[in-house]
TrEMBL record, chain A:
It is found in: Nucleus. This is tRNA (guanine-N(7)-)-methyltransferase non-catalytic subunit. Residues 504-606 are annotated as: Disordered. It comes from the Eukaryota. It comes from Riccia sorocarpa. Forms a heterodimer with the catalytic subunit. Residues 557-589 have a biased composition (Basic and acidic residues). GO terms for cellular component: nucleus. WD repeats lie at residues 57-98, 192-238.
From TrEMBL, chain B:
Keywords: Methyltransferase, Nucleus, RNA-binding, S-adenosyl-L-methionine, Transferase, tRNA processing, tRNA-binding. This is tRNA (guanine-N(7)-)-methyltransferase. Residues 1-10 have a biased composition (Basic and acidic residues). Belongs to the class I-like SAM-binding methyltransferase superfamily. TrmB family.
């Protein structure tokens, strides 16, 4: 039921952007970003705020992925997949600056002096722009870069001395905040290395006294929350959420670790709220300043079964939690005209408008009821979930932030999809050695498939090969009397109808499938008859050359050369027998008869030249193979290239063309190459194919 | 005809040599490059699948430099395996004169990034026998070759080449996983991939963002050596190093005294190739300096 509604209400696509929440540093307002929209609620006046934007472009065209207030609370910034960074005045809620940057933004923050907005992108670079509004256009200045990794979170330390960036490659980097950001931040102070999966979020804990040093907490895909002395790059404590009994009893597969997806630290720096993947609640840890550890404090389960996507503490230690997601889509580079771009923006805004979220509030338990829990929670105050009715702003707040038709089912589905999308993006896929090997081996096959080994293409290819070799005339080709037909739709063996003048008389090509041994079995065919072979060679060549209406000079010369060449090549090679015996290693009985049989003709089996007749056979075998493969073999089951060519070679051998798989493959590749060359040439010279 | 026969015989001989090497029969012979040929490039941006240590402390250098770490290993393993013990003892008695392992510096100090077939490492090993140095190479076959080569050299010249080793890793991504802050004294970038297309400039091994990492792992006063035969890349590397506030060029007179500088253009296969064709090389040698702030 819920699923049905969800599919109607909000689309759950591959790309889901989670809803984000941020609280104003002085607690005067709360912002939820969902999809491409900001929903702002003023807690003092108890009313929604209308944001105004007169910059260009005037709205986000795709999902917002990062929002942040500065410490003073006079600026707010939003950025996301549309590659725009918007800077807002958070008093008037008007956009004061929009900067376009080359890549999608994943995280945004402010410098401690509020002079700079810093943002990190999906390609691992951190940029900055000044918050001061100037006449000239702002160009983002690159501060630092992680080499080809997605930056997941970006923070500036409380003293403003360091920039902390975490990435998908398990790293947390601490760079020195530069004296002059215009020159970049080239000095790396330390690395915090210890996570065994992607790092999702970072935050600072500990008392915020001016002289003191805060510590860093980070959460990652390995389900741990780690505590760091980030100046020394030293890990102080690991809190593994997978060890918690409280989370275990839920019906989840044991093997999948729950990634930590969000962290927020209370204003006094003592409580760390942690969001976990597939957990409908929030985990509260307390930071112990004495022994520098994180301890489990409380586990608060939300009233409804939704998976939170973002959280934020405000100045009064209220914890705002939002669950929800909006569909994001790749508009990408297809948007050429402004109209198209506007349409895409409209769509993004519509999706965002329809998107629903679920907002909850966790507050410190009032002193009256705190007495009984005193023992459990020690010297840290206990938290409890605030009733929806008693939230500040009550109904208006919820309807503003959650959207019109809040429905926990929809929210849960969307949020889960967002989690999965995040995990898919972040986690590194593990391939077995076998898979790696296979990929290497079949990489070239795919290339050939691209240039077409479908039946139709093979037909055309063959026509062109024949034409290029001068076996059929242009007249025939252009007069469209030339056509091949193939009966492959009903799974019958293919039959190639050759043009009349090319049809060899006692043709080996109109045979039935029964000639072909099934794959894998030992092949068993009558030894080729030499008389038949010599015969079938001539008709292919002769009529074609006779019929050529006006043979061009060079064509004639080429023909001559070709025939000379073939004559030469027909001379038996001394080492041919070696090749043969190798080819027939598995079947020594066959070699004897073949040899004796062909003593008179010599070239019957032993020839190396690829006469047209033989190419026909190879060609047809390959055709059959391609058709069979496309129909019989289910997708995903792949045959090794070598096996395939061995099979084709056997088919050829059954028709008297004695080559091994490698030879067939080589020839085939040459033919394809030749064909492509002709196509290229035609494309350049403007001749129709 | 005779030549052909000789050639065939030669081939057969080589093959048998190889098989014996591969089977571990004749360890004295050096591995042959042609059995370790690989694609010229490996994508440095793709996700790696080889194991990478989580941080420098997890990095086990003992297996790379057994002669240097023999005290540590013998203590740790407590002489469990008699054979192994015998072997290490044998080697140690031979090495005693050359490596005073108890006082040796047990941290890797030199890194050759993109070491290729290891020409520079082998030459450097003789010049600096008491410094541990490691080559980093992304192509697995090539790094296998270098490992085999070093192993063979160690067997052939007992007591020498104990201070070099090779890692298969992606230096663009994982340098901080191997080295601590300020650990290295010298870094070498010899004839790196030029990556001409502008789209691929981010794959170049010298760039502003990567120089920040190199500055992090280099000690103050450490030197970064780069050389290339591509003028465009030479200018790129020079301009990037110039632009970085933590590097300053090393003056010419110092370069004349530095034994490494001469090796840059002659030690590697690539350098020899350039010399053969009497091509020009462009080098940029810079020192890591402390930050002014």
């Amino acid at each position: 039921m819920e699923d049905d509604e969800a599919s109607v209400g909000v689309g759950v696509g591959e790309l889901m952007a989670p809803a984000l929440i941020s609280a104003h540093p002085d607690g005067s307002c709360v912002v939820v970003a969902i999809g491409a929209r900001l929903r702002v609620f003023d807690l003092v006046k108890n009313q929604p705020v209308v944001v105004s934007d007169e910059t260009v472009p005037a709205r986000h065209g795709e999902a917002i992925r990062a929002i942040a207030f500065n410490d003073k609370g006079n600026f707010f910034s939003s950025a996301g997949d549309d590659k725009l960074v918007k800077l807002w005045n958070s008093e008037s809620w008007s956009c004061i600056k929009t900067v376009r940057i080359p890549k999608k933004v994943t995280s945004v923050t402010f410098s401690k002096d509020s002079k700079w907005v810093l943002f990190a992108d999906k390609f691992g670079a951190v940029y900055t722009i000044p918050t001061v509004v100037k006449e000239e256009k702002d160009e983002p200045i690159q501060l630092l870069g992680h080499c080809c990794s997605i930056i997941t979170d970006l923070e500036v330390s409380s003293q403003g001395k360091y920039i902390v960036t975490s990435d998908r490659d398990f790293k947390i980097r601490v760079s020195v905040f530069p004296a002059d950001p215009l020159k970049g931040a080239p000095e790396i102070w330390s690395y915090c290395l210890g996570h065994t999966s992607f790092v999702t979020c970072t935050a600072f804990v500990g008392p915020r006294n001016p002289g003191g040093q805060q510590l860093l907490v980070s959460g990652g895909g390995d389900s741990t929350v780690r505590l760091w002395d980030y100046v020394k790059g030293k890990m102080l404590h690991v809190f593994d959420t997978a060890q918690l009994e409280a989370l275990r009893d839920e019906e989840t597969p044991d093997d999948a670790a729950r990634a930590v997806i969000g962290l927020s630290v209370s204003p006094d720096g003592s409580v760390v709220a942690v969001l976990l993947e597939r957990f409908s609640g929030v985990l509260l840890l307390v930071y112990d300043d004495l022994d520098k550890t994180l301890k489990h404090h409380q586990c608060i389960v939300l009233s409804e079964h939704v998976f939170p996507t973002s959280l934020a503490f405000d100045v009064t230690s209220r914890l705002w939690i939002v669950a929800g997601a909006a569909e994001s889509f790749e508009s990408g580079d297809q948007l050429v005209t402004p109209e198209e771009a506007a349409a895409a923006e409209d769509r993004a805004q519509m999706i965002a408008k329809a998107a629903v979220a679920h907002v909850s509030l966790v507050v410190r338990r009032s002193p009256t009821s705190a007495g009984q829990d005193e023992e459990n929670c020690g010297r840290f105050a206990a938290y409890e979930l605030c009733e929806r009715g008693s939230m500040p702003g009550a109904e208006t707040l919820l309807s503003t932030l959650e959207g019109s038709r809040a429905n926990s089912g929809e929210v849960a589905v969307a949020a889960e999809a967002a989690e999965q999308a995040m995990k898919k993006l972040m986690s590194k896929r593990q391939y077995t050695l076998q898979e790696r090997d296979n990929r290497k081996r079949f990489r070239n096959d795919k290339k050939f498939e691209k240039c077409g080994t479908g039946a139709e293409e093979i037909m055309m290819l063959w026509a062109w090969v024949l034409f290029a070799r001068g076996n059929i005339s242009e007249r025939v080709l252009y007069g469209q009397t030339f056509h091949f037909r193939i009966a492959c739709c009903d799974g019958l063996p293919s039959t190639i109808m050759l043009p009349h003048e090319c049809q060899p008389q006692p043709t080996p090509f109109s045979h039935s499938q029964s000639h072909y041994p099934p794959a894998g079995e030992e092949f068993d065919c009558p030894p080729p008859q030499s008389a038949f072979r010599t015969k079938n060679k001539e008709p292919v060549n002769e009529p074609a050359s006779q019929r050529r209406s006006k043979p061009k000079k060079h064509r004639a010369r080429k023909e001559e050369n070709l025939s000379r060449l073939t004559r030469e090549l027909e001379e038996p090679y001394p080492d041919e027998s070696r090749v043969r015996s190798e080819a027939f290693d598995d079947d020594p009985n066959k070699t004897g008869p073949n040899k004796s049989d062909n003593d008179d003709s010599g070239e019957g089996v032993r020839t190396r030249s690829w006469r047209n007749s033989k190419i026909f056979v190879l060609f047809e075998a390959k055709c059959d193979e391609a058709i069979q493969r496309s129909m019989a073999v289910p997708r995903g089951v792949v045959m090794r290239t070598k096996e395939m060519w061995d099979l084709i070679a056997r088919k050829c051998q059954a028709n008297g063309v004695m080559y091994v798989g490698a030879q067939c493959q080589g020839k085939w590749n040459m033919l394809v190459y030749e064909y492509l060359k002709i196509l290229d040439h035609n494309a350049r010279s403007g001749r129709e194919p | 005809m005779v030549d052909q026969e000789n050639g065939a015989r030669e081939k057969g001989k080589k093959r048998t040599e190889f098989t014996t090497i591969a089977q571990g029969g004749d360890q004295k012979g050096l591995p042959r490059k042609r059995f370790y040929r690989a694609r010229a490039h490996s994508n440095p941006l793709s996700d790696s699948h080889f194991p990478v240590p989580n941080n420098p402390s997890e990095c086990d250098w003992r297996e790379h430099f057994p002669a240097f770490f023999k005290d540590a290993t013998s203590k740790a393993e407590n002489c469990n395996c008699v054979n192994e013990e015998l072997q290490t003892e044998d080697r140690s008695s031979e090495n005693e004169a050359i490596i005073p392992s108890s006082q040796a510096d047990l941290k890797v100090r030199f890194a050759d990034v993109g070491c290729g077939f290891g020409g520079l490492l082998v030459k450097l090993s003789i010049h600096f026998p008491d410094k541990l140095m490691v080559g980093m190479e992304l192509r697995d076959k090539v790094s296998e070759y270098v490992k085999e080569r070093i192993h063979a050299l160690r067997v052939k010249h007992p007591g020498q080449y104990e201070n070099i080793s090779c890692l298969r890793t992606n230096a663009m991504k994982y340098l901080p996983n191997y080295f601590e802050k300020g650990q290295l004294e010298k870094m070498f970038f010899l004839f790196p991939d030029p990556h001409f297309k502008e789209k691929n400039h981010r794959r170049r091994i010298i760039s502003q963002t990567l120089l920040a990492e190199y500055a992090y792992i280099l000690a103050v006063g450490g030197i970064i050596y780069t050389i290339t035969d591509v003028e465009e890349l030479g200018e790129w590397m020079k301009s990037n190093l110039d632009a970085h506030p933590l590097f300053e060029p090393v003056p010419e007179e110092e370069l004349a005294k530095d034994p490494c500088v001469e090796l840059l253009s002659v030690a590697t296969e690539e350098g020899q190739k350039v010399a053969r064709n009497s091509g020009e090389t462009f080098r940029a040698i810079y020192r890591r300096i402390g930050s002014s702030a």
